[in-house]
Design a protein that fits this description.
mainly alpha; 4 helices
Length: 108
């Protein structure tokens, strides 16, 4: 029971951090206004940075979604059980990656 409480707190902490990241990446991926008087090279650099940030945003949104799903499933009997091999996922992995649904061996 104490383990579940520890995992729940960890998931909630990770959700808060990930929400902040999502907000930051959303700000960084706003359209680049053409009226901004930045040079052609600077504009190309800004466009490149925007695409990198868009990829990071997608990854952060996926992580946030997976964390929210993990939080809803924490009381399920199969929480912490690998979806592939049906063995328990080590506590260290769950605390490091609370959204993990597979053990290290099956994740590879």
């Amino acid at each position: 029971m104490e383990e579940k409480l520890q995992i729940k707190r960890r998931i909630e902490e990770e959700i808060a951090v990930t929400r902040e990241l999502v907000d930051k990446y959303r700000e960084l991926t706003k359209p680049i206004a053409p009226e901004n008087a930045i040079g052609r090279v600077s504009r190309m650099d800004a466009i490149n940075n925007k695409s990198v940030n868009e990829a990071a945003l997608q990854k952060a949104e996926l992580k946030l979604n997976n964390l929210q799903v993990a939080l809803t499933k924490i009381d399920d009997d199969d929480f912490g059980i690998c979806v592939r091999c049906n063995k328990p996922i080590p506590m260290g992995r769950i605390l490091l990656m609370p959204q993990a649904i597979s053990c290290v061996n099956c994740a590879h």
